[in-house]
Design brief:
The complex is a heterodimer of chains A (162) and B (314).
Chain A: E1 8-15, H1 18-31, E2 36-42, E3 53-59, H2 62-73, E4 78-85, E5 92-99, E6 116-123, E7 127-134, H3 136-148, E8 152-161
Antiparallel strand pairs in A: 1-3, 1-4, 2-3, 5-7, 5-8, 6-7
Chain B: H1 12-19, E1 23-28, H2 33-44, E2 48-55, H3 57-67, E3 76-78, H4 82-95, E4 100-103, H5 108-115, E5 125-132, E6 141-144, H6 154-172, E7 178-182, H7 193-202, E8 210-215, H8 217-221, H9 223-229, H10 237-240, E9 246-248, H11 252-268, E10 271-278, E11 284-286, H12 293-313
Parallel strand pairs in B: 1-2, 1-4, 2-3, 4-11, 6-9, 7-8, 7-9
Antiparallel strand pairs in B: 5-6, 5-10
The chains are: A alpha+beta (162), B alpha/beta (314).
């Protein structure tokens, strides 16, 4: 749920002409008055005329989401569309973060699982750099907690996928 | 997408228009925030690059402030009252350099009456371009006239066919469109005058179109219905039946019902539509209060493509 209590959704659209598809998808959302929270384009999948995918997150009611599913599926440059609640366990989100100290296992413990956590760099000036991955809802909670505890100084990169 | 590429869906018009030369739009009664949001969105998409607002100066200034849109002061033309706005609009159009007219906060009958002085075709009519998942396998089509021609005499319907054919040719690149004159039956019946008008129109010589009528909606759009019911014994039936590009409704009442059905499907996410009023020196957009933002934006794109392509060929 977002701040207005509306559910959070993830679309993954398999598209041709990724730039053109992004424009038409963004226009469709704008016309319905729905803001896209994040959008990421993924690389080429060389089959069936598909040249990549676009993953985007947004918040709206279930009815509004269903309208968007129908509208986006009808766009010329969209070949297929998958939709998920943001909380879906089939989604994965990863983030590269900078931390003020070395992370302990309890730092990356979720309610039910531990996040994937790999140290990717250590620098005297910048501190510790980690790659974290997990379900989006779990990763978001842990990132919020690490930020509250002032352990995270920067989220360099964050991406959602399947 | 290049200019010769096939347009599969009405929403493709937005991207196509954005890649073409940008248009200048004049808004008659330009003091409504929703209209300003629309033209700003069209400017964001690269469809238009100049916006001229005509109307009550303080009202326009308030709407401009509310929306936060950037309009050059020379592009705000002050006029008080519908009559004055209509007169000023016609003056601006006559001075040239305008590609599209958008009716804003303005009396439609007053503006239409003034616009008649700018008529360039024998008939003015509303042409709607649409695609709808339940109809004709989602194929892009045109229909007319859901909002402009109140009394459909055979002479006016001839003009409506010509206007629709021009849009199909210029915007969709269909060289010789298939036109269905709709009615409720395929046989001319004296008690159903639209069937007789349909046949009368189909029997005329149409060098730029295949015209067939009278045809029911299903026989015009659905090859499956043609297979079940059989090919009607009408001119051009073998070309048009089941495959019509243009649907000419027998009157504004039936056309308006079809249009509003498309609007409901659009809100459900299963159709897209856009309108262009033909017959004047520039394409003219009369937006219904029930139209969605998508329909309004695509209508501007449709008019811009028509304006730029006819400018390039003239």
């Amino acid at each position: 749920m977002n701040e207005q209590g509306k559910p959070h959704w993830v679309f993954r659209a398999h598209v041709m002409d990724r730039a053109g598809a992004l424009t038409s998808i963004a226009s469709a959302f704008s016309n319905e008055g729905i803001s896209i929270d994040t959008v990421v384009g993924h690389g080429s999948e060389e089959h069936a005329g598909i040249d990549g995918s676009v993953v985007l997150t947004f918040s709206c009611s279930q009815e509004e989401k269903d309208v968007m599913v129908r509208k986006v599926k009808r766009l010329s440059k969209v070949r297929a569309l998958q939709e998920h609640p943001y909380e879906s366990q089939s989604l994965r989100k990863s983030a590269i973060i900078r931390a003020t100290r070395e992370l302990k296992p309890r730092d990356v413990a979720g309610d039910e699982t531990f996040l994937t956590c790999e140290l990717v760099g250590q620098d005297k000036a910048k501190g510790w750099t980690y790659l974290l991955a997990g379900s989006p809802s779990e990763l978001d909670l842990i990132l919020d907690r690490l930020a509250d505890e002032k352990i995270v100084t920067d989220i360099v990169y964050s991406i959602i996928g399947l | 997408m290049n200019h010769n590429e096939q347009i599969h869906h009405v929403t493709d018009l937005v991207e196509l228009a954005g890649r073409m030369r940008a248009s200048t739009v004049v808004v008659a009664g330009g003091d409504r925030p929703d209209d300003l949001r629309l033209v700003e969105s069209a400017r964001d998409h690269g469809i238009i690059d100049r916006i001229i607002l005509i109307g009550h100066r303080e009202g326009i200034a308030s709407a401009v402030d509310q929306v936060g849109i950037d309009i050059a002061s020379k592009d705000i033309i002050s006029a008080e009252g519908y009559e004055a706005v209509a007169d000023a609009t016609v003056d601006v159009l006559q001075s040239g350099g305008i590609d599209i007219l958008l009716k804003g906060n303005m009396s439609t009958p007053i503006l239409n009456k003034r616009m008649l002085s700018l008529a360039q075709r024998p008939t003015a009519s509303l042409v709607t371009v649409f695609d709808a998942a339940p109809f004709a396998a989602g194929r892009i089509m045109l229909m007319t006239d859901a909002g402009f021609t109140t009394v459909c005499t055979p002479e006016r319907m001839i003009g409506m066919v010509h206007n629709s054919v021009a849009v199909a040719q210029v915007v969709l690149g269909i060289k010789k469109p298939r036109v269905a004159i709709l009615s409720a039956n395929e046989k001319p019946i004296p008690s159903l005058p639209s069937t007789q008008i349909g046949l009368e129109l189909a029997q005329r010589d149409w060098p730029d179109a295949f015209v067939c009528g009278p045809l029911s909606f299903d026989l015009a759009t659905d090859p499956g219905s043609v297979a079940v019911k059989g090919l009607p014994d009408l001119p051009n039936a073998e070309t048009v039946a089941g495959h019509a590009d243009i649907l000419v409704c027998p009157g504004i009442d039936s056309a308006n019902i079809l249009y509003k059905t498309l609007t409901a499907l659009n809100k459900y996410g299963q159709a897209s539509l856009a309108g262009i009023t033909m017959g004047f020196s520039v394409p003219y957009i009369i937006i219904s209060r029930a139209d969605t933002m998508e329909t309004r934006l695509v209508s501007i794109a449709l008019c811009s493509i028509y304006a730029q392509r006819t400018r390039n060929t003239s």
